[in-house]
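Shipment paperwork, digital attachment
Item: protein structure file
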Amino acid sequence: MIIDIQTKVPKEIKETCQIETEQFMGRNIFIVTPKNKEKSDLKILYFHGGSYVAEATKQHWEFIEQIVKDTGATVILPDYPLTPKYNYKDVFKMVVPLYKEIIDRVDSNQLVMMGDSAGGGLGLALEERVGEENLAMPAKTILISPWLDVRLTNPVIDEVQKNDKQLNKETLKLAGISYAGDDGINSYLVNPIEGDLSKLKNVIILIGTYDILNPDVNLLKEKATEVGVQIEVKEYEQAGHIWMIEKNSGQELTQQAYQDILDCLASLGLSQTRQERILNER
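Attachment content:
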């Protein structure tokens, strides 16, 4: 019997954030807002990482908690289906209608798509998918160490693997095969590096140089440039995979990347006064 893995909210997060749980197509959607603090108009649709196998971790929740605290944003965290019980088709049967419902309720000019690792790949693939229907795109997209190609065939990966102490190429490929199911291994929904990039806008990617997903990020940027789309890539020397979430590359490097995210969000829903207060507190 294959267990349906589901995300649970850590008790300590409930003490600092207001968390509402809604049901959507039989899955939980967590709506996270600041508790007893000023709210902004900013809405963030966040897809957590975990190789499409694992639920959101305590580190994910703490990262979301910090963003909510610092920006006053509302974070929407879908508990999307995970492999091996489900594959990409099940995921997109859920996330496409969810996105449509969100943009019916939310001004797309105040909506940010965010995701880390597999969640970053999922978020980008979702944008490519809704772009086919000419739906409104998020005002900004922020991807942290995104997994853009589960096949991991980029020849530069083997060179970076020597420095990556977190991810193993062969182990990741197995997870990718499971997520792809019987027919998805070459689908752009599984490998968004293969998707139509022409309708993307305001995409920023944060990636470490010691991350085997780095080569595909740079390849994505090249492909986007070819179709007239500018993707901003911020590289952090000697940073590993999702370092700012797991805080595994030193305090200074983590704070630098997190501040870059705050700067990216500032223009959408974070007032100058609030931004200055955050900077003064740090």
